[in-house]
Amino acid sequence: MPTLNEVARHAGVTPATVSNVLRNRGRVGETTRQRVLEAVAALGYRPHLAARALAEGRAPTLALMVSSIANPFYPEFALAVERAARTSGHFVIICNTNEDPLTGRAYLDQIAGTLSEGVLVTNANLDFADLHTTEARGTPVVLCMWERPHEPPGLPCVAVDFRLAGELAGQHLLALGHRRIGAIVGSKATGVHAARYQGFVDALHAAGAPKGRVKHALDTIQGGYTATRALLDADPTITAIFATNDLPALGAMHAAADLGLSVPGELSVIGITDIQLARESRPALTTVAVPTVEVAGLAVSLLRELIESSYGQAGKAAAPDAVTVPMRISSPPELVVRASTGVPRSP
């Protein structure tokens, strides 16, 4: 593999000039720049990213921490992050924690600040103390999809008003005439979906409707399936299911099919997020869409700002600003009505 020095000799310039051309920095004449690019093409030179990171103390990559790459939301979000990152010449490393804090800590220890110069974190079940430690070492961290805009997490974040998402879902079912509504929460009572469920409960309370039964389940299709069977076994008069995420909502529709219940004729189902599967299911799933692409762009932009501000003129990492912790708030969630919700069945 050709080296930077070989490219420089071939082009008749210094290695520093080749570096400036490849990084699009410094003052290089157009004739010289073209000569360097021709030498790069002729020799088939490719920069060694790991070596560059070690030499400069910076890496052209960002790390994206996700809890489970098997959840279809995360590949969709990762694609949006990758597209946003490429506009600034960054690559993205996907770090799948499999909802294991120890795996997440290992990623932070081995990648943050070495292979990546910044970390984006979704609901990856990471200990905040580990994230603060990473930040204190000079590697910026941004939380994506923070679900409680009115409760800042103490770390830079992009927040989405998921309480509003739950409220919109509840209001939609109430407007259709449903009053016996079961709820599936894809986390523990105090988990990441708590704000979504609270918004749903707030909508019921405002309308004077009963709270109804609730099941906490795994945030999966199977979790939604099992929870729906349990809800309907406990109360066969339930006419609608609210799920705090699309996957459990899809599981609810599968359970309805196995029970011989038509959707939405005998059971309405609504979720939150608007993943691709929600649009492709039959019937198509009514859901409350969150601005996934917008959040990805905001998160990458904020992380880039933090990366640039964390480096002094000498290129060394500076101490993070402990006084101002930035938060970006996305556009509000929006109800997307499809075929899985309708008026309740006749008693």
UniProtKB/TrEMBL annotation:
The keyword Transcription applies. SMART domains: HTH_LACI (SM00354). Coiled coil: none annotated. Residues 2-56 form the HTH lacI-type domain. InterPro entries: HTH_LacI (IPR000843), Lambda_DNA-bd_dom_sf (IPR010982), Peripla_BP/Lac1_sug-bd_dom (IPR001761), Peripla_BP_I (IPR028082). It comes from the Bacteria. The keyword DNA repair does not apply. Keywords: DNA-binding, Transcription, Transcription regulation. Gene3D superfamilies: 3.40.50.2300, lambda repressor-like DNA-binding domains. This is Catabolite control protein A.
